[in-house]
Design brief:
The protein has one domain (9-301, 352-370): Rhodopsin 7-helix transmembrane proteins (Rhopdopsin 7-helix transmembrane proteins, Up-down Bundle), CATH 1.20.1070. The chain is built from 14 helices and no strands. The protein has helices at residues 2-7, 14-21, 31-60, 67-90, 102-135, 145-164, 188-222, 229-265, 273-297, 300-314, 319-323, 330-345, 354-358, 360-370. The N and C termini lie far apart (55 Å). GO terms for molecular function: lysophosphatidic acid receptor activity. Keywords: Cell membrane, Disulfide bond, Endosome, G-protein coupled receptor, Glycoprotein, Membrane, Receptor, Transducer, Transmembrane, Transmembrane helix.
Amino acid sequence: MNNFTEKCYNNETVKFFYSESGKNISDHWRKRDYVVVTLGMTVCFIVIFSNLLVMGAIIKNRRFHYPIYYLLGNLALADLFSGVSYLHLMFHTGPWTIKLSINQWFVRQGLIDTSLTASVLNLLAVAVERHQTIFNMQLHSKMSTRRVFIIMLFIWLVAIIMGLVPTMGWHCLCDLPNCSTMAPMYSRSYLVFWALLNLLTFSIMVAVYTRIFIYVRHKSKQMSQHTTQMRHRETVFNLMKTVSMILGCFVICWTPGLVVLLLDGLGCDKCKVLRYEKYCLVLAECNSFVNPIIYSFRDKDMRRTFKEILCFLFRRGDPESISGVHFNTLEQENCKSRMGEQTENTNGTLLRNKTSDDNPASSVKWKLEQS
């Protein structure tokens, strides 16, 4: 036992492991450091603000109290946590890294791993929910609220475990030759495992959305006799656009980082992974503010709720709003009138979209666009 302890380097400094792995820690701020930190902090604030807006909208509007929106809220929470974790990283990077203890370094990396894993798993959960809803021709999933929260809890449990795994022993403190170059206290085998796990998740997402596309395209062809050819083309085009945005943004944001991680984990010394490391991490973080745009900002009801929240926040100090005197625009009055007519015609229950009821293909298109 004593011989094993002597081979470990638990009492060494962070600088020791960086030197052993060939990753230098600068003792002064370089132009590159300023660029990375400035870019990173800008992304962080955008991520935090946009995802807080999404969460606030889901809580505020009772029309969003359905399984898909709960999952979107959990995705926003994961991305919010990702923004906070990355902001923490920005204040513990560059020349500040040398001041960290080993435990502080593991906390810094663990927060990033946990948040990004939770974000990816939530993306997969949203894809599976859309698959279930569209194939059952439903407006909203019949999944119970309890089941949704169990899924959300499971996502965070897996994400936290993934963040704690290196701290619990899958590191290289006792195996210096196996240390990563990008993360000098992480084992190369762990980096390979983490990268492959995310690539597997991405592959499942590709398979799910591909099946959705094939199914909707088949259904729209079946219904083409009841609709014009233009409507058929519009359905397929909108579906292609939505799927391309979801998969395209994920590929653009994550593929470079996963490739770099794999190269580092496989010990590619000639790949110069350190040159691209920080930029790949910033790009992966960008996926956390792209998610609200794809999944939420394209929803008209969500955008309307955003405007209400922003108007409330930025007009709190407006004397006219404080006085309690409000003047509605003609558009607002017309909207109220239309809503009143709908309520009267349905005894208090809003009418469903007639196009969605009469045309299953259009219903499928609408539901996918809401995602």
